[in-house]
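Task 17 of the worksheet. Students: predict the tertiary structure of the chain below and write it out as structure tokens. Keep your answer in the requested format; marks are given for formatting as well as content.
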Amino acid sequence: MATAAVALVLSLPVMAANDVAADDAEEQLRFTVVPEAVMSPFAAQGIAPRAVAGILSVHNQTALTSDSSYKNATLSGDHSIVLGSRSAVSGGYSTAYGNQVVVSGPDGSAFGFGANADGIGATALGAKARASHFALAVGYSASATGTADVAIGNKAVASGTYSNAMGYSATATGANSVAIGTLAKGAASSAVSLGNRAEVAAAATNSVALGSTSSATAANTVSVGNATLKRKIVNVADGALSATSTDAVTGKQLHATDGKVTAVDNKAVAAQTTATAAATAANKAQTGADLATTTANTALAKLASTRVELGEGAAATGTRGTAIGTRSAASGRLNAIALGTDAKASGDASSVAIGTESHADHQYAVAIGHRARVTGNTSTAIGYEALASGAGVTAIGRSATGSADYTVALGHNAKASGASAIALGHGSVATVANTVSVGSASQQRKIVNVADGVLSAASTEAVTGKQLHATDGKVTAADNKAVAAQTTATAAATAASKAQTGADLANSLVSQVSGTGNVRLGAQNTGRTLDVRNQGDLTRTVSGVTDGALSATSTDAVTGKQLNATNQTISTNAAKVQSLITEASSTGTVRVGIGNEGVRLDVRNKDNQSRTLTGVSDGALSATSTEAVTGKQLHATDGKVTAADNKAVAAQTTATAAATAANKAQTGADLANSLVGQVSGTGNVRLGAQNTGRTLDVRNQGNLTRTLSGVTDGALSATSTDAVTGGQLFATNEVVKNQQEVVAGNTRLIGDNRSSIATLRTDLDAATANLDYAVMFNKERTVVDLGNARISGLAAGDISRADSREAVNGGQLFATNARVGYLEDQQRYVAVGSDEYSEAARAGWGGVAIGTGTEAAVDGEGATALGSFAKAAGDNSVALGRAAHVHAGSAGGFALGTLSQVAVQNGVALGTASEVRVGAQSSVALGYASIATESNSLSIGNSNLKRRIVNLGAGTADDNATTVAQLNGALDGLGGGASVDATGAITAPEYVLSGGTYDNVGTALLALDSAVVTTKSDVDALGSQVNRLFQEEASTRTDGPGRLNLGGAHGMVLGNVANGLIASGSRDAVNGGQLYEVQKNLQGQIDTLEGRGSEPVAMMARMGTPVDTPVDTPVAKVDAPEPVVKAEGDNAVAVGSEGKERSVRHVAKGTADTDAVNVRQLNDVLTQSNEYTDLAVEGLNKRLDGMDKRFNRMAAMSSAQSAMAMNTAGLKTYNRLGAGVGHSDGESALAVGYQRVMNERGSATFSLNGAFTNSGEKTVGVGVGIGW
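Model answer:
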């Protein structure tokens, strides 16, 4: 597993992607150790242990030796680097660049003044940035103190575990929270704040605040405003309508519901009356429904585009554009994304602007940060006021500016204005094309972690401090060796001197000549002959003789090998001798030694002193050149160092050998007296066997030469080292004589050239005085030995060409060192490099990848990945946050937050662990763990996590979301207490009709319809009964208007009549019972009268003439032939006869059933009967009146329903909301209805309506329509 370092890869048309993979075999040998407290939060999110950077096994350590510029820096840890004053690193595999930088954990990185990386895998980039375990802090005073936090921006703070804060002073303090935008705050767990000053309060867990100044204060909510600022949510897709659905409904859906209510109301009207007006209204409603279907189909075409607009004044005018934030504008033609207050994404294709006032004005442009701006194609600007104004430009950091094509500006206020130039680090300036700058004229940096450059004449690679240090080490070693050689040589000279003293004390036969170990025989006597014959006077062979010098003045003995070579030369090379002497041509060119095979030209003088060879022309410099080079041609510093080192080694070896020889000479001197007596069993004598000298000197004490006699003929061969005798030399001379004839012919030429050679010799002798200071080659001619000397006066070598072989002087090297120092000094905040364990970020063309293991469309283009293990695999996609992932093929996808994922094109996932899954094209998942599974949808939760949308303004357009207040208004129209309760559930209405209770509109309408039908039947029956009871026709009203005639051809019995008042003035009707009592009273009186006599009795009454008695009425006589009073029938009493009726006056009130009643009693009964009848008729009239008014109210509601339906019939939208007013004979009504088209074909509709009168009557209706 790669360490948790941060790698930056900027992929441009002229810059290849960096792809460094870890060694799998070595990876298997390492063991990752992560504390359980740190690992458990990742395990809870399902992150494999290998995805967490660990503490790797240690192998070697690198420490930087401080100089005067960097004091008190401390380092402890394997594979770690620290650079800066008062900086400290205390963990393996860590890096610290800058003054007062602190890294306190393994795999940490801190760049910038006062940066602090405290924990495993922490990365702090920027002055005073602070990061903890696996966290990333980018920007001035950015703080990421929670596990795996990301804080990007000036003073951005991420302190909750796995939280993300991006933007100036953005704050994410809740676990898994995300705050994006200037002063955005996410204080709750799993909160998302998006926009300038957007805020999620601490108690509002799992909530989202979208847009400038939006505030979320309750848990599991999505806020697009605050207490005083309300915003609409527009372009909302229709939510699913089911018993378990948690989707937000649109105004269109609510309008459809109102339409269904209207339809139900129309149905109720049709049910309660069969009048023509109701039927006509129903027909019009049907016509309106048909028109609504057509309108809905038309509206579907208008909703085909998929745009997202969240925030006051937000506008997404391009295809698949996304504008989130106050006054944000995504006006690019295709896939534009504008996120933040006043963010503008106007690039022609796939432009992205994230942050307050950020602008992405060209195609494939990406601007992230407050006032970040991109004005060039395929360019990227990340950071506060970052500016990318050329094509293919990348500017990252506050006020970073790339103003020329294909430039890169990385760091706060970095400026790159030269074409294809790169400015790395705070304040760095790159004004020259195709250059890399790590500082400015006033601020320099060091470049660290540079690989060793190739050292060759054609190399243009930078050399490292390590290489220069190695060179310095070689120089120091060579100097040390030279000093050691000098010391050893001095000791050897001392030892040789002692040996000389010892030899002087020995007999004169053996003499130690010098400290070289040579032996001189007979140096103390005056003899001229050295006789080596034995005691038998036999000659000896002198063996072990070194080749003697061959010259006119040489006194060295020659060996058989030399004589044999001479003989061979004389016999075979006469022609060569001829050519040798003629080497002085007319051109003036001289070639020395053409006739021999020697490989060395020794120009030492007679004193064996070296000469300076001057006036030498520059030799050709090539791989095959054998020409001598001049001092000014020596250019390779390493060559000089190597030569010095070789010389020092050789000197050391020689001096050591000299010391050894001197010691041996000392021992030999002590044994000098016995040297001559060294005779073995063979009788041979070996002189100087105990020393290492190479010369046998037989000169006497007067320095005169001796004759060596008694010498046996030496062997003559190419390898012989025997001394030759005079006889052998004589034979050779004879051969020479044979060649004299040839040589004689050339005598003249020799004489002509002798003066020239003499002159040359004189010149050579004159040059010998300075030969010791000449440049010397080794015998292979591969090394030039300067003897620790300096080369001065060297002209500046050509360093403008890769194939230059000219030597550089100290001034040039100083300038190079100064530039390297400048780069190193400016490199304190930025490092480019990796060790063998790092896993590199990778990016495709036009992509940006920042973080360990990040990938930005490696095989695609235009992607952006930010955060450890973030992967933006789709073209022009964006993945921000640890392990954020936009899958391959998901072009235009946007994933923001730890573990957020997008698996479809143009999907947007905002929040930790949010997902847009396969099949959910162009959908949005907002908030922690939100999952979008349907295309063109907005999800703010998942199957287990539900959120509310709060601070939502009332929808006014068909595609606006509606609020609970609007829904409550619609539900109020249903009556019956229908409402939305505190949990969001809809409380069903409750209707009381005809003594029954109904909890839904359908059953209530059925009951109402049944009651109306029953009432109508009862009214009809009552009307029929009334018609049968009374005769109201004019033809039957013969009794006058004050009379009421009962119906029926034979009259009608009035039954169940209560006892009427029988009193004076009573107008009550009397019933049969009362009349029966009167009859009984009368009958009793009659019986009494009958009991007074069985015979007729003539009753003589005082005759008078009362006013009410006819004048001519005779006095009744019982026996009168024409009785005045005639009682006919049994038990009858008569007081008159036909035509002579009489009044019975002063009749007392009857009390018994058979008593007669008087007129007053009868009138009372009639009065009571009349009053009862009047009251009954009045009550009936009132009921009929109420029925008439109810009919009028129903008619008014029907008229209102019809008006409402007629005014919505022509609307061509998914949702229709209508209202109508009706009036009928003094009664008024108001009707409100909502209708929703359920699908794109318009083949199914749902409606909800209600009507209300001024007297309190209410009707509701729910309807469903299906067509095919």
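Marker's comment: The longest helix spans residues 1159-1208. The longest strand covers residues 1227-1237.
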